[in-house]
Design brief:
The complex is a heterodimer. Chain A has nine helices and ten strands. Chain A is of the alpha/beta class. In chain B, the strands form three sheets. Chain B has a six-stranded mixed beta barrel. In chain B, strands 13-14-19-16-18-17 form a six-stranded mixed beta barrel. Classes of the chains: A alpha/beta, B alpha+beta.
Chain lengths: 253, 780
């Protein structure tokens, strides 16, 4: 029996645009499980990113509840949500969003030292993670404008993982990268998932989606269907591709 | 041109907040600048206008006696001098007197004139400013119009040793006799009151000589000549006189103080506004590098882009300067009201084109210059480079405060990173805080030495202060001293008598004599060397010595009563009563020139003594042998009240202005920072930083510059404030300021400034609350 990490009930999100209320998410009931690599797919405008922001506490729902463990996060204030994100979540963004004025190491430590953990252990953890994603010590002292896009996204992942989050949220993590560096990023995510890291990733790229163990398909703000691909292994890539393709075809992709 | 206007409008729309703050700073600078220019260029001229309008005299002298023989002598003397343009002699009554004013006692040499005679004077005309239907009573100089001295009220005037009560019938304006600061103060009495006083004999008859000169610059020399001539011929005659040079300066001391402070504030605010504009433009170029590249790519020239900034800032400066200068006309009547309490000369507020256009020119010119200097960088923007990745606007050559190597708490470390990377912000803050430190230290100095305890101010400005001053006839001196020395209420009595002597070259100096200078209460007047001990020694005013290049040990020749004597300078003093034209010597020293006809003694009385009652008792006991008694404390209180209240207003005004300036400067900096770091704040919020942490970080990032510049500023200003004050007061004879620097006040003021800056920065950073991580992710 998988442990439920995060649960939503009747999750809805609406935006007012030009006087019209636009319902982006409609009554979503969802459970996310520990250790899963959940991929949220869907066409543009389906509400994928909005769902990710709501699940991660970046945004608050208009209606419904989101429960993390025993805690209802949908009713938290902005500052309480910030503390929630700091303690439980990690984020990898499409635009990476490193702070230009800080060195690579400081970008990571600015997130790591925010928690009450011992300074030495945070620095040690950062160094381990850098080694894991192949970021050299020299690169650690550079500024974001001095490194490549692939390196920057790997730094972004180190920053996301520095606090050992219970869930890692990734919004189109390969969207701004070329094919080779995108693959490196996916490999890194897969590796961390293999080590037990729960991941929720939004993508519209099939190659990225294949890395997921569970695919959710969103259409018009509702979950239209889901597909269980099981844990990723290099050898089952073609079989997963077929299964995913058939699922997406069924969803009208 | 049209394109530049469009760009300027677009820039303005995008930076409304910054524009508003710059508008406020320029507005304040224009306001202060125009007020200062009006005060310095026109207000002082008001005396000249008043003097011309009233065909006022350049030298006035009252000579007790008024015999026909004396009149003939004076007429011959005046006619014989080629400098005399015209003169007029009339009969008046002359006596030292006192009255209650400003919560104290005002004493002066009163010149009593019959009202109708006075109004018909050809030279030194007198104009009635406020009249009434009262037909019997007194008309006072308009300077003294107050709650207690008002039309219909009864005022008591002590004339010599008698008290007279008069109904106030009105007020008049006189250029040369309208203030206690003019050596002699005119008073008009209705015909019957005048006759009554004349018949009573309380005030002796005197000849009042009113002389107009061909060249008013020579008024002091002329006064010295006349005094010498009169004292040589009539050694016993008591005289009182004033000159154009002395009156024009002494009636405008408050104008000088106010004008000086306004000039300083105008300069400070202008400097801050210019620094803020320069910082704003440099920041604008950095943040809009890509846009500027794009505009260049579509055909805009560097000149057009620079013109748009010129139009934006210089245009704002001119419009706002126009408004600021305009609003200064709303404030000027209040300042005028404040000034009149010291000048005593009504001033009609009217439009002054020269200060107005000068204000526009100074603000327009300096802003235009600063815009040109700071926007020249636009010429280096190459469209391709700017469009590709933007010219590197931040050069991260050094990783300040690396988080893996510092033990500093995270939020402070991140704040320090921001501090280290914001040189322009730090420079702006440093300049602002240094200026404000000077303002705070100056305010502290005034509060400590003038408002809370006026003794240091009075010691420096007034000179010698005791409880009572009694002037006795020379023949009664011995008996008077014998009685005073046995009176238990008298703690100390010493000769402190002032009279005039002439220095070779014609300068009239006020000489103060005493038997033993170790007895005088205020030893601080001696600022270099020592008091005179022997009869051939003299101490001269430091300002006068500097003007005449006199050194300690030099010999100077003085004349009095037709005799001349040589004296060796034993030291320098500063007394501002006579605008720096003073000297001190011993009684024996003076007696080498002449005998004293009467002597003034200063008395320190026991604490519980009623000074007024004591003085009355002495008057009664010695009768006509006592010429006058003065309650010095009350006189000083009354005279200084104007300056103390003026300083209270100035201190309040500069403190309010300082708070406004620091608020707007911080507003500009915080707003720029929040706008520039919006993305960073969004990322940090997404990572889990709370709004409070980010606000704290932002406010803390200003603190190193605030703390260092405040500590440095307050420390340096504490050391230089006395020399600066002396520089400021040099015109009234102060060359060395001896004010106590209130160390604790300065420390508290510094701490207050730092704390205020932090709180203001926190409040202004509240905008961070609106930045949400979702907005960042949605690309808003």
């Amino acid at each position: 029996m998988k442990k439920i990490l995060l649960k939503t009930e009747n999750l809805s999100k609406s935006f007012s645009s030009g006087g019209n209320l636009q319902h982006v998410l409609k009554n979503i009931d969802l459970e996310l499980y520990q250790g899963d690599f959940t991929v949220i797919m869907g066409a543009s405008g389906a509400g994928k990113s909005t769902l990710l922001y709501a699940l991660s506490g970046m945004d608050t729902p208009s209606l419904g509840t989101i429960t993390f463990g025993e805690r209802r996060i949908s009713s938290l204030s902005q500052d309480e949500l910030a503390v929630f994100r700091r303690d439980h979540c990690g984020f990898v963004f499409q635009q990476i969003y490193l702070i230009d004025g800080m060195s690579v190491m400081d970008n990571v430590l600015s997130a790591g030292l925010l928690t009450d953990r011992d300074r030495k252990s945070v620095i040690l953890r950062a160094k381990e993670l850098f080694a894991d994603v192949d970021i050299s010590e020299e690169t650690q002292n550079k500024f974001p404008t001095q490194i490549s896009g692939g390196e920057a996204q790997r730094v972004g992942m180190v920053r996301a993982l520095i606090n050992s989050p219970e869930i890692l949220f990734a919004d189109e993590p390969t969207g701004a990268l070329n094919s080779k560096t995108g693959l490196d990023v996916l490999d890194t995510l897969t590796r961390f998932n293999e080590k037990g890291q729960s991941i929720v990733m939004v993508t519209h790229d099939m190659r990225s989606a294949r890395r997921g163990s569970r695919i959710l398909y969103l259409k018009d703000g509702m979950i239209l269907g889901e597909c269980d691909l099981g844990k990723y292994a290099m050898q089952d890539d073609s079989a997963r591709q077929e299964k995913l393709a058939s699922f997406l075809a069924e969803m009208g992709w | 041109m049209r394109k530049s206007i469009l760009l300027a409008r677009s820039n303005l729309r995008r930076a409304k907040g910054q524009t508003a703050a710059i508008i406020v700073l320029i507005f304040l600078a224009a306001l202060m600048l125009n007020l200062w220019l009006m005060l310095s260029m026109d207000y002082r001229q008001n005396f000249r206008r008043c003097h011309d309008r009233l065909n006022a005299e350049h030298v006035t002298m009252a000579i007790d006696g008024d015999t026909s023989e004396m009149r003939k002598f004076v007429t011959d003397t005046l006619k014989a001098d080629k400098r005399t343009a015209e003169f007029f002699l009339d009969s008046v009554l002359h006596m030292v007197g006192t009255f209650e004013y400003n919560g104290g006692e005002m004493n002066s040499e009163f010149i009593f004139m019959e009202k109708e005679d006075a109004l018909n004077r050809k030279i030194g005309k007198i104009e009635i400013v406020e009249d009434s239907s009262y037909t019997r009573g007194i008309y006072m100089p308009v300077l003294y119009r107050s709650d207690d001295i008002a039309v219909g009220k009864t005022m008591e005037l002590s004339i010599g040793s008698r008290k007279m009560s008069y109904t106030v019938c009105g007020f008049f304006n006189s250029a040369m006799m309208g203030s206690h600061n003019c050596s002699m103060c005119g008073v008009l009495l209705t015909e019957d009151c005048y006759q009554e006083l004349e018949e009573a004999g309380y005030a002796p008859r005197a000849a009042l000589c009113s002389i107009r000169l061909h060249d008013r610059e020579g008024s002091e020399d002329y006064d010295a000549m006349l005094k010498d001539a009169v004292s040589a011929r009539y050694p016993a005659a008591r005289t009182a006189s004033n000159t154009y040079a002395m009156v024009s300066q002494s009636r405008y001391i408050s104008q000088m103080i106010c004008s000086g402070i306004m000039s300083a504030m105008a300069c400070f605010i202008l400097i801050i506004a210019l620094v803020v504009i320069a910082s704003n433009i440099i920041n604008y170029i950095q943040e809009n590098m890509k846009n500027l590249g794009a505009l260049k790519a579509v055909g805009y020239t560097s000149r057009q882009l620079i013109s748009s900034l010129q139009m934006q800032f210089t245009g704002i400066a001119l419009v706002v300067a126009w408004m600021g200068a305009g609003v200064s006309y709303v404030l000027f009547p209040y300042i005028n009201e404040m000034m009149i309490s010291q000048t005593g000369i009504p001033y009609e507020v009217r439009f002054l084109p020269v200060p107005f256009f000068l204000t526009l020119a100074v603000l327009g010119g300096t802003v235009s210059g600063v815009v040109w200097m700071s926007s020249r960088r636009i010429r280096n923007v190459e469209p391709i480079v700017a469009l590709r990745q933007g010219i590197q606007t931040h050069t991260f050559k050094q990783n300040h405060v690396p988080l893996d190597r510092t033990r500093t708490p995270l939020n402070l470390a991140l704040a320090l990173k921001t501090t280290m990377s914001g040189v322009k912000h730090n420079v702006t803050i440093c300049i602002t805080m240094l200026v404000l430190s000077l303002v705070a230290v100056f305010s502290g100095l005034m509060v400590r030495n003038m408002i809370m305890d006026s003794a240091p101010f009075l010691d420096m400005i007034v000179g010698e202060i005791a409880d009572s001053c009694i002037n006795v006839q020379a023949e009664a001196e011995e008996g008077f001293l014998k009685e005073m020395n046995t009176d238990e209420r008298v703690q100390k009595i010493y000769l402190y008598h002032s009279l005039q002597v002439t220095h070779a070259g014609g300068d009239v100096l006020v000489a103060t004599l005493t038997d033993d200078f170790s007895k005088v209460n205020n030893q601080k007047v001696m600022i270099e060397g020592r008091f005179p001990k022997y009869d051939n020694e003299i101490a001269v005013a430091a300002k006068y010595a500097a003007e005449k290049k006199l050194k300690t040990g030099d010999e100077i020749k003085l004349t009095a009563g037709g005799k001349q004597g040589a004296y060796i300078i034993s030291g320098f003093v500063q007394i501002s009563n006579n605008l720096g034209k003073d000297c001190l010597f011993t009684r024996e020293g003076y007696e080498r020139l002449g005998e004293l006809e009467n002597t003034s003694y200063y008395l320190n009385l026991a604490d519980d003594t009623d000074i007024e009652a004591f003085n009355s008792e002495v008057k009664e006991r010695f009768g006509d042998n006592v010429n006058a008694t003065i309650d010095i404390n009350a006189t000083v209180q009354s005279g200084s009240a104007v300056y103390v209240s003026l300083m209270k207003i100035i201190v309040m005004a500069v403190l309010v202005l300082s708070v406004l300036v620091i608020t707007f400067v911080l507003y500009l900096l915080v707003r720029t920072m929040v706008s520039n770091k919006k993305r960073d704040y969004g990322i940090l919020k997404a990572l889990g930083f709370t709004t409070g942490q980010l606000i704290c970080q932002t406010a803390l990032s200003f603190m190193p510059a605030v703390i260092l510049s405040t500590i440095g500023g307050v420390t340096v200003c504490s050391f230089i404030i006395n020399p600066l004050t002396a520089l400021f007061l040099r015109n009234i004879g102060i060359v060395k300021s001896t004010f106590t620097v209130p160390v604790w006040y300065n420390i508290l003021a510094g701490m207050g400034m730092i704390l205020s800056a932090f709180l203001i920065a926190c409040l202004l950073s509240l905008k961070i609350k609106k930045i949400t991580p979702r907005a960042l992710l949605a690309g808003e």
